[in-house]
Write a structure and sequence with these properties.
Structural class: mainly alpha
Order of helices and strands: EEHHH
Helix content: over 70%
Shape: rod-shaped
Largest sheet: 2 strands, antiparallel
Mean pLDDT: 76
Number of domains: 1
Radius of gyration: 57 Å
Strand order of the largest sheet: 1-2
Number of helices: 3
């Protein structure tokens, strides 16, 4: 310290004889670093977990009902798609079972009934033909007998003509009908697998349409969740910056208060009131 008639004076105090006394070298002061920020860090730090929780708490009443709505809607649509596809397949399976148990028999029965009717019609024509032949033969035999003809000339009609009529009009058509009935009945017995396959195709189409709609709903839900995450991060950043600013303001206020209460200024010079 410099000597003075008034005694020892601190460095930097104005002297009447030689001016200012030598000042002590002071350390350079660095601006206060906010909590959680490294001086060498150039990137914006992630907000502490507390800020994220506060942001989620603020945004939850806005986004949670929408997310719950999409979740319930997706679950409902998935259940509806599954039940509709299963119902469609069950209907076709039940129809295929009924078809297999009833359709071949009914088809063959229809053709058999038609064959029986055809045989009956042909039998009627055959009997009528035989009766007409017998009547004609009876009248002719009367003329022969009246004329004194020998017994050997009497007419004896046989069943040949009636049999021809029955064969052409009854047996042959009815046999063809029976054969067709058996063929169509066998073809009908092969239809149930095709019916079940058609049910599977329609059920698959229902599932595909439902999955497309569900995928669209899931995409909307994902967009909403992404928006919530972005908003949460943005709001947490705002809370973090506000917290850092509040801390910096408090630190600056403390520094000003310290300057007003200490007997020296921040420039390192003593102040004599």
């Amino acid at each position: 310290m410099a000597k003075s008639p008034f005694g020892s004076l601190p460095a930097g105090v104005l002297r009447a004889d030689k001016g200012l006394t030598p000042r002590r070298p002071r350390k350079s002061k660095r601006a206060p670093t906010p909590p959680g920020v490294r001086p060498s860090s150039r990137s914006m730090p992630k907000p502490p977990p507390g800020y994220g929780a506060i942001a989620r708490q603020q945004l939850g009443p806005i986004y949670n009902p929408l997310l719950d709505y999409y979740s319930s809607l997706i679950a409902k649509r998935q259940s509806e798609t599954t039940s509709q596809a299963k119902y469609k397949q069950d209907v076709f399976n039940a129809f295929a079972k009924w078809y297999l148990e009833n359709a071949p028999k009914q088809i063959q029965g229809i053709y058999s009934q038609a064959a029986g009717d055809q045989s009956a019609y042909a039998a009627g024509f055959s009997i009528g033909m035989q009766q007409a032949q017998q009547q004609l033969a009876h009248q002719a035999n009367k003329y022969i007998q009246t004329a004194g003809g020998p017994q050997g000339q009497m007419l004896q009609p046989g069943p040949e003509a009636g049999n021809v009529i029955y064969g052409l009009g009854g047996f042959i058509p009815s046999s063809m009908l029976n054969q067709q009935g058996a063929a169509f009945g066998a073809a009908a017995a092969l239809q149930p697998p095709a019916i079940m396959a058609e049910g599977g195709r329609q059920a698959l189409e229902i599932s595909k349409l439902g999955e497309e709609e569900i995928a669209q709903l899931q995409l909307e839900e994902l967009k909403l969740r992404s928006e919530l995450a972005a908003k949460t991060f943005e709001l947490a950043q705002q809370y973090r910056e506000a917290g850092q600013k509040a801390k910096a303001d408090r630190l600056e206020a403390l520094q000003r208060r310290a300057e007003n209460t200490l007997p020296f200024s921040m420039s390192g010079q003593w102040v004599i009131p």
